[in-house]
């Protein structure tokens, strides 16, 4: 495709950091501050990803990736994150999982913005956080480095606007692009079997545009998109780049981190999907026979 086809797309942001440093609270605070759609706000539709708007620009947040999921996705070649927010509690400072998280982000070459959280606490010490992260080559701009640090209190909802502005600043520099005119492709954020609706998957569209009725292959399963629901719990007919949507219509439940691709005709999608299913089953069978062989010798 000619570069002229590429349009700017919203950044996809994940929040990482040590246990209890406030990742979930921060995600909730961002959503609460920014999702003003009260009508939709009443519907507590859980979808593991959401979008907010700041100064007319959208930002997509992924709710799921704990470190394990992040690593699995990366191992499978699914790079979903454009920007990592590294949350560090100002009272606790840098902890083992903080270092793990920043190493993951560095390995994936994803820009890091540091959110120094729990600034409302009496013993908050943001200088210590800056010092400790400098030892890990995350040098704050204030000290002549290149890493953006934002002080926040997720509980009080303070610093959220500044954090979003910094995300947009990084996005402008990086220029995340996609082609909305292609057949959609992307990654599974989460999936489950719903009693009433059957397999339900939250997909992040990374390139192209997805439409209701599209034949689709998702990991080792396939189907035709029956319905799409956005992060506000509303039914939508299309989803463009960086948009998270929940879909139904798959024949089976895919896994988080699986890739998906829309096909032009259903027959082809079925063929590819069934081929992948068969190969997955064969690999599983070989794996289990290998295990039983190992068992024999132990
Ligand atoms: P895990 O998902 O278990 O790793 O934790 P987390 O990083 O998502 O932390 P979570 O949001 O669950 O917050 C942990 C605790 O810290 C909760 O009791 C929160 O209320 C508290 N907390 C989070 N943000 C703040 C903050 O800005 N100030 C204060 N005082 N407490 C906070
Ligand atoms: Na927690
Ligand atoms: Mg959490």
UniProtKB/TrEMBL annotation:
Q: Which residues bind GTP?
A: 17-24, 63-67, 117-120
Where in or outside the cell it occurs: the entry states: Cytoplasm
User: Which residues does the annotated region (G-domain) include?
Assistant: 11-159
Q: Where is the Tr-type G domain?
A: 8-181
The similarity annotation says: Belongs to the TRAFAC class translation factor GTPase superfamily. Classic translation factor GTPase family. IF-2 subfamily.
Q: What does this protein do?
A: One of the essential components for the initiation of protein synthesis. Protects formylmethionyl-tRNA from spontaneous hydrolysis and promotes its binding to the 30S ribosomal subunits. Also involved in the hydrolysis of GTP during the formation of the 70S ribosomal complex.
Q: What is this protein called?
A: Translation initiation factor IF-2
Species this protein is from: Geomicrobium sediminis
